[in-house]
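Record type: ASSEMBLY
Status: queued
Input:
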Amino acid sequence: MPRKEMIALLLAGGQGSRLGVLTQNIAKPAVLYGGKYRIIDFTLSNCINSGIDTVGVLTQYQPLKLNSHIGIGKPWDLDRMNGGISILAPYTSGESGEWYTGTADAVFQNIHYVDEMNPDYVIILSGDHIYKMDYASMLARHTSQKADATISVINVPMEEASRYGILNCDARDHIVEFDEKPKEPKSTLASMGIYIFNWSVLREYLTADHVASATEHDFGKNILPNMLQDGKKMVAYRFEGYWKDVGTLQAYWESTMNLTERVPDFNLFDPYWKIYTPNPVYPAHYIGENAKVTKSVIAEGCMIQGTVRNSVIFPGVRIQEGAFVEDSIVMSDTIIGDGTEIHCAIVGENSVVGNQVRIGIGDYAPSQYNPKVYEARISVIGSNTVVPNGTLIGQNVVIDNGLSPGDFSTIEIPSGGYVMKGGANE
Amino acid sequence: MKRAMGIILTGGKNNRLKELSLERSITAVPFGGKYRAIDFVLSNLVNSSIVNVGVITQYNFRSLVDHLGSGKEWDLDRKNEGLFIFPPYLSEVGTGWYKGTADAMYNNLTFLLKSDEEYVVITQGYAIYNMDYMPMIDAHISSGADVTMAVHTLDDFSVSERRLLGMVDVDETGRVTDLQEKPLNPKGNLCSMGVYVLRRLLLVELLQDCAAHGHTEFVNDVLIRNVQKMNIQSFCFHGYWRPLSTIQLFYRSNMELLNPRVRAELLMDRRRIFTKVKDETPAKYNEEADVRNSIVADGCIIEGTVENSIIFRGVKIMKDAVVRDSIVMQGSVVCEGVSLKNTILDKDVVVTAGKQLQGDRDWPLIVGKNVTV
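Status: finished
Output:
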């Protein structure tokens, strides 16, 4: 079999706990995004568009949706005889089986997978970001610099820099210092969590890290600083373009809303860098006689009879006569009832919002459920939930996944309120 | 299970669809925002658990073959059965072009002989309908007929449309007593849907006999000649059915998709219609968009007014453009200030700013593929 120059390892185990009910039952990379996609589609499409045909996807947290989404990789053209996509779940072997304890550990546990592919280079990716990037051009820089490791970086505003791993570089963009979430950042070059390593070098460091005592088995905290300390040649690869972590409800909502702009920051219409995903079998969507759709993204299979403004509507959604949806995201196969009014909300998949419901009314109030996660005006309705007719829902309200009308003890849920199956301390 | 195989005939050359079929087989004509005509028959077969399907092609089959590929979108990329495409070929005994539908099947007799299903469903690839063939096969088996023919009533077909169909007479037992292909004076209210069920080995026999007599057409030479000799039963299909045999029917059936009842039966049924995937992003509506009673596919950018229209994948309708009662196919661009009424734009047409195109309800204006107006 032909050897692979570079293979990708995609770390898709993150929970993304700040997406609240959206990631209660699915991993963050499996969260729906952009009217049709799941977050991981952007990274997977980058791989195939960059000519990488061997991708190991490392899963851990709630992988069911992710597994069925990826399947054998057909939508990304990754169903290959030699290479293709492999789902690498934690496993037990002999006495050593365990959950992945960190990003580096996850890769270490799959050393045999990489060895079998025997590549010169490995690119480490995460399935958490929305961006388009040509990894081949990053590899070109890695090889021309004869580097041991190349880290993709992006310029961030100084005031946000302390949230990232910051790289301090010399004039040739060689990395001289690595600061994980520094209090006083010395530069604004943030690591994007995308690394290319010479496999032989990385293998050595992973093996050492595995037996080391004081380690968190993390790329950013352990592997990269260790390499730097040993004087390995590490270079920065500057990325310019759209790159968004949609890890909070506010960030998720804002970046989705931006897709409805006339010229969005992120262009999904690029014929030379298509984003692939499994295509649901739906007819083209239908806009009704009395419907009004403006500044919105509407997917296939929808039936829109009401008014939709400034919103993103996923496949198979029905918005009934007299309904009004504004500044909102409605995920696949959900029904919005007659005369229902929705402002500034995220409604999960396969749910039913009854007739004459109002969502997003009143004034903002802090969440009584979990103010760390629910900190914006946005109300979130989970998946597979039925909201009873006539329910009045304020701002920043959270409604659980999988609720039936009987789970609602009241039809008035004021701003900051919640309806959760197990109560507040679930 | 696995009782029947399928054959799709993609028809001879005709120019009744004008510009739309100039460069493509009539079965490859785009329909309903994202489909091509053949998707309906192909999906019907798959949804009826018929997964050994031969498509017999003749004229302009490039776009059809491109569309069908390996058949994976219809779940027909199988190890043993699946999708087989039979374009005409030259051989020591073969003459290249198929001389007719029977000749075409006869030339691919190996396919019939190598298959092991007991029954064959023969279909035409250019009709729009959503039908489960299983009840028809069951009826065929229980009636003991030699051939069962699907028929449809013609209440809403005009005389000129009836002239292009196969008119059928049946007796009180449902047996077909007369069959007239494209009659000048169509009588009665029943036509053949061009869908036949018969035993595979009987079909082989009939084709061999037909070829031995120098005949070439399945309808004229096999069915009509034997209408007295054989027991041909009718099976009435009561659902929505439109053959795309004229521009008027093509236009009309596209527009009928705006009727929720038709859309529900054809497209939103449990029996889904499959088609080739294009990986387009969902449609984008800008601030000025005003869309009513229309079908819009993925990949479109809409800034203008659209009413009672079918907009295919990847179409751009710019500001101040007004599209009414029209069909705009994949990749076409309708520039600022354009007005379209009763117009069909084929694929990749550009209508430049300010142009006004208007057809008639009965004679829609057609702009051919790749044309810039």
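Annotation: The CA atoms of residues 70 and 77 of chain B lie 6 Å apart.
Annotation: The interface with chain A takes residues 32-34, 72, 258, 263, 267-268, 272-274, 277, 279, 281-299, 301, 306, 310-313 of chain B (CB under 8 Å).
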